[in-house]
Amino acid sequence: MESVRRGGDRQAIHERLRIHSRAATGAIFERGEANPFLDFIADDSEVPLDGEELKALLDPKAFVGRAPEQVEDFLYAVVRPILDAADNLPEARDLDV
User: Fold this and answer.
1) Are 35 and 27 in contact (CB under 8 A)?
2) Could you give the CA distance from residue 71 to residue 68 in angstroms, rounded to a whole number?
3) Distance separating alpha carbons of residues 35 and 49, to the nearest angstrom
4) What's the average model confidence in pLDDT over 40-65?
5) Is 3 exposed, middle or buried (0-12, 13-18, 19+ CB in 10 A)?
6) Sorting pLDDT into bands at 50, 70 and 90, what band is 91?
7) What mean pLDDT is predicted for residues 68-87?
8) Beta carbons of 37 and 20 less than 8 angstroms apart
9) Which burial class, exposed, middle or buried, applies to 41 when counting CB atoms under 10 A from its CB (0-12, 13-18, 19+)?
10) CB 17 within 8 A of CB 4
11) Do 76 and 42 touch, CB atoms closer than 8 A?
């Protein structure tokens, strides 16, 4: 989608991705290589994205949504009251390994 936003033709970009996907599958399953898919895309002059831009687009942090805030809300709303109500919890200690 980012390639199309940058002026690429949607169908042409899709075809390039399909070609690279098939080539990457061959590299992985037929030759036992590491997945070269992103390298193929980055090296393709018809796809207007370089390797760094691809990595940024695929950053897992961009796909977690509100999960960090939801975990924090859960800890404060559910876990913290349980811990506060418990009288017999052991003291926290420093652990040196």
Assistant:
1) yes
2) 5
3) 18
4) 92
5) buried
6) confident
7) 93
8) yes
9) buried
10) no
11) no
Per-residue pLDDT, averaged over 17-43, amounts to 96
Structure-derived torsion over alpha carbons of residues 10, 4, 53, 23, reported in degrees to the nearest 10: 10
Main-chain phi, psi angles of 69, to 5 degrees? -70, -35
User: What does the alpha-carbon distance between residue 93 and residue 51 come to, in Å, rounded to a whole number?
Assistant: 46
Local confidence band at 97 (pLDDT 50, 70, 90 cut-offs) = confident
Averaged pLDDT for residues 68-72: 96
Specify the 3-state DSSP secondary structure of 44.
Answer: coil
- Give the up-direction half-sphere exposure of residue 39: CA atoms within 13 A in the CB hemisphere: 7
What is d(CA 97, CA 9) in angstroms, rounded to the nearest whole number?
57
Q: What is the CATH number of domain 2-85?
A: 1.10.40.30
Q: How is residue 11 written in tokens?
A: 């169908």
Q: Which residue has the tokens 């859960």?
A: 74
Query: Which uninterrupted H or E stretch holds 55?
Result: helix 51-57
